[in-house]
Protein 1
Amino acid sequence: MEGLSLYDRIGGEETLRLLTDRFYDHVFAHELISRLFKSNKDEIKEKQRLFLTQFLGGPALYSEVFGHPRLRARHIPHTITEEDAIAWLTCMDRAISALTISDELKKELFGRFPQSALFMVNS
Ligand code: HEM
């Protein structure tokens, strides 16, 4: 599988649909961070699926629709603490754990998030 993107190796679109579905179920139920999510759950799931597709090396679906991600700037309107980032990562870890991919791939996939999550901390 050398040369294939992480997006392809985890199973592409089907896996990302499952992942974003479960991830936001955890986020919207989370006692600390659910307060931050005010828009429609299906819309944010879909935005995140488009974003993660390109973030993991698949086609640039998010940018085709929304332009440059500028993720830190897009998060500025939301007050995000380090504690929120850790909660976000915990939700992602749980969603990744439930996927039917190898433990090695789970580890590699989760490893893509901590740095970006801490980068969104703005309070
Ligand atoms: C550090 C913890 C994080 C918190 C608390 C957080 C919170 C939020 C919130 C509140 C929104 C707006 C949701 C809405 O419209 O209701 C959002 C949007 C978004 N977040 Fe995060 N986020 C975090 C980290 C991340 C990370 C690490 C990524 C990517 C790897 C990410 C990707 C996105 C994307 C793609 C959107 C949609 C942006 C748009 O087009 O409007 N977020 N996030």
Protein 2
Amino acid sequence: MIIVKADRTDVAEVAKLHVHAFPGFFLTSLGLSFLEELYAGFLSHPSGIFIVAKEEEGIVGFAAGTSAPEVFFPDLRRRRRFAFVFKAIPSILRNPLPVCRKLLYAVRYRGEAPAARSSGALLSSIGTAIACRGNGVAANLMLEFEKEAMAHGADFVYLTTDAEQNDRVNAFYRRHGYAAVSRFQQNGRRDMFRYEKQLSA
Ligand SMILES: CC(C)(COP(=O)(O)OP(=O)(O)OC[C@H]1O[C@@H](n2cnc3c(N)ncnc32)[C@H](O)[C@@H]1OP(=O)(O)O)[C@@H](O)C(=O)NCCC(=O)NCCS
């Protein structure tokens, strides 16, 4: 397995892997072309950090985030908002109210950034192929993500994940040195932990 920076040719495969790794999640429900737009956003922004794990058969894992969430999300909305809405239309038509409510949240999203500190990199998503789980793919992606975050000048990495019915993922982050610094209700109903890890050279 190799861990490399993603490029444009990886975007479609990562979007498919996202659907496979996050069944039933909101972003997945927005469809492949929406996800392709989102992951292309990590590639095109200077603060984007986007890496993939490759085996002979193709991409088996990915991690994506930004070293400047406070500018990344507003920039993405400004530059690509029409593309995002256009690509979400099929999903909006299927389920108008819940999708619009969550899209509104997504439009305002800044990664739950800690207000007083601005040198944190946000790990937005990490996922691996089901058939490859438990082999250290995500562990290697995390290490590479942290190295990239340091290269971008970040001194800590933070992320959010479900607090409930998510024990293995929470155990995974804790084992990799992430400490839960807060617990909050996303969208007023989804119980989330925010984790942080200090980076050291
Ligand atoms: C969480 C995830 C990225 C871990 O990937 P991985 O390549 O299996 O991770 P590693 O092999 O480095 O480490 C395995 C550890 O991951 C955790 N883990 C979480 N979900 C797991 C799963 N479904 N299968 C295996 N391990 C899982 C466990 O702590 C496991 O340790 P254990 O074997 O002692 O239980 C992967 O399960 C995944 O893609 N899950 C769906 C997407 C997701 O929830 N992403 C994180 C939230 S943003």
